[in-house]
Amino acid sequence: AQSVTQPDIHITVSEGASLELRCNYSYGATPYLFWYVQSPGQGLQLLLKYFSGDTLVQGIKGFEAEFKRSQSSFNLRKPSVHWSDAAEYFCAVGSNYQLIWGAGTKLIIKP
Amino acid sequence: GAGVSQSPSNKVTEKGKDVELRCDPISGHTALYWYRQSLGQGLEFLIYFQGNSAPDKSGLPSDRFSAERTGGSVSTLTIQRTQQEDSAVYLCASSLGGVLGNQPQHFGDGTRLSIL
Predict the structure, then answer these.
(1) Are strands A105-110 and A10-14 parallel, antiparallel or unpaired?
(2) pLDDT by residue for chain A (111 residues), tens digit each?
(3) Can you tell me the distance from the alpha carbon of A72 to that of A11, in angstroms, rounded to the nearest whole number?
(4) Which chain B residue shows the shortest CA-CA distance from A51?
(5) Which of A32, A42, A90 sits opposite B102 (nearest CB)?
(6) What residues of chain A lie within 8 A of the CB of B99, using their CB?
(7) Which of B48, B104, B108 sits opposite A34 (nearest CB)?
(8) Is A78 exposed, middle or buried (0-12, 13-18, 19+ CB in 10 A)?
(9) Using CA atoms, how far apart are residues A85 and A81, in angstroms rounded to an integer?
């Protein structure tokens, strides 16, 4: 069965530091992969998506993610985080007509 | 607006009452999803509508939960005889649909439901 794992429930980084959020998936075919962000009290906003082609995908707000088929991973990165990046981040894989969701990683920014 | 609209944004009700939550999807989106998000948890799929097809109700937690989508647009999620464990944020999303799963979902801001 398809699944998505986000191993880190919480991650704390200092403002200005680099960030990497991990996502591993289990899927039999070429996956459609997504990262979403949820700010407090709001719905989810699409950060970026991967369908095919270049394995390094650029998204909004300075985020990028790299698809690594050999590792079944789609990790999210940002070179320098801002306090406004504090939020919860969800990875998802497209399966048939649905998205299979990870449990989320809460990002905490230290001043 | 152009986004997914949900109402009410907050709902407080007494245990045992029925509640209705509304979702207005993005115009032209054929797929509509309902999710539940309990405090500090991920997304729990509830139900999916695609065009005129029969909905996928596989995520509904009990027969107290039902949803309909009128005219392929607005959707209502109804919870009957609410229980305290129904307290959560209910999120609606819409997309262009399709079987490939390659269409991103666009989310509303959710309805925060509190059962006293």
Answers:
(1) parallel
(2) 788 999 999 999 999 999 999 999 998 777 889 999 999 878 899 999 998 888 999 999 999 999 999 999 999 999 999 999 999 999 999 877 778 899 999 999 998
(3) 21
(4) B102
(5) A32
(6) 96-97
(7) B104
(8) buried
(9) 6
